[in-house]
Amino acid sequence: MISLAHAQAAAPATPGLTDFLPLIIIFILFWFMLIRPQMKRAKEQKKMLSELAKGDEVVTASGQLGRVTKIGDNYVALEIADGVVTHMQKQSIQTLLPKGTIKGL
After folding, report:
1. Would you list the domain boundaries of the chain?
2. What is the pLDDT of residues 17-40, one digit of tens each?
3. CA 102 to chain centre
4. Long-range contacts for 48-57 (Cβ within 8 Å, ≥24 apart)?
5. What is the pTM of this model?
6. How far apart are CA 37 and CA 34, in angstroms?
């Protein structure tokens, strides 16, 4: 009496570039706004630490100002006051100051 109607099978959708375009744009923005500047900052920090010399005035990550008196492979001796020397990890040095900055304080 009533014949069954069968739907025709739909063709499978092939993923194209337009499906992935939003993800690609997000990744490109992420790269230029976050990853690339961080890599540049890390490269500058590494260069500054490798060029560190005795007598340089520096600021540590904790905010201490001091003059470098001795440099080792992993540690640096900082003179933070006359006759007061502390030992810090080299990685904790954050900023290299111009000569004479400590005397001006």
Report:
1. 22-51, 53-105
2. 788 888 999 999 999 999 999 999
3. 27
4. 48/93, 48/96, 49/90, 49/91, 49/93, 52/76, 52/90, 52/93, 52/96, 56/96, 56/97, 57/96, 57/97, 57/98, 57/99, 57/100, 57/101, 57/102
5. 0.70
6. 6
Residue 16, pLDDT score: 74
Strands 57-60 and 65-71: antiparallel
Q: According to the 3-state scheme, what is the secondary structure of 65-88?
A: EEEEEEECCCEEEEEEECCEEEEE
| Structure token pair of residue 23 | 């993800």
Q: What amino acid is encoded at 50 in this protein?
A: S
Question: Of 98, 87, 91, which is closest to residue 61 (Cα–Cα)?
Answer: 91
What CATH number does domain 53-105 carry, 2.60.40.10, 2.30.30.600, 1.10.150.450, 2.50.20.10? 2.30.30.600
